[in-house]
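Why do we care about 3D structure at all? Because function follows from shape, and shape follows, mostly, from sequence. That is the central idea of this module. The next example makes it concrete: a single protein chain, its amino acid sequence, and then its structure expressed as tokens.
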Amino acid sequence: MTDLAKPRTSGEPMVKAEGVRKSYGLVEVLKGIDLEVEQGEVFCLIGPSGSGKSTFLRCINHLEKINGGLLSVDGELVGYAMRGGKLHELRDREVALKRRDIGMVFQRFNLFPHMTALENVIEAPVQVKKESRAAAKERAMALLERVGLADKAGNYPTQLSGGQQQRVAIARALAMKPKLMLFDEPTSALDPELVGDVLDVMRGLAEEGMTMIVVTHEMGFAREVGDALVFMDGGVVVESGHPRDVLTDPQHERTRAFLSKVL
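And the structure:
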């Protein structure tokens, strides 16, 4: 186990979804998702735009509220508590406490523009976890070194390339010592020549045992690094299995049609 990750608190799957549903008004985006992500797995989600991949990812850390089913992380319900056989939504402060254990990296880097790379990384440990500024700074420099950007610690986001900003965003998420990392198409906003550096950081995390759920269009990464892969379409899981099996010998016609366009 890498020292980047929080120790586990249960023997349950890291993520377990049981009949998860999500609607926006009359539009049902997730139509009963069932899946499990084991400790240390790199779990890849692929599918066309609008298939529900990113929505599901955001439900895991309760950025989106589910409308049905159960969703747990490390054996604990996300955003809810079960009382008397009914789900009750937790208060914002309780949700925030649980969300600290889940790191998320978005398509757009979402760095604070008025803060340097170093300041972006130390902000949450100091403000949320009340770490001393000195300890947070020491750890942040180690994380920036880890993602190959120690020499950019004093740079502001506008002084960094898209790939560099994304690597700072990864370091910022790791600074909270998460037990789970969520990546929502982390390379889709990058110029092609910048994608490799970000994927290399993610490969390193995988080698160190970080549990990761990755929404991605990078099929090479999914094939080489992924332990499990799910193809989603229309808010349902169409096909799942080992990435090499799904990508080289898909069993469902819809999966074959999708892969014929992206491979």
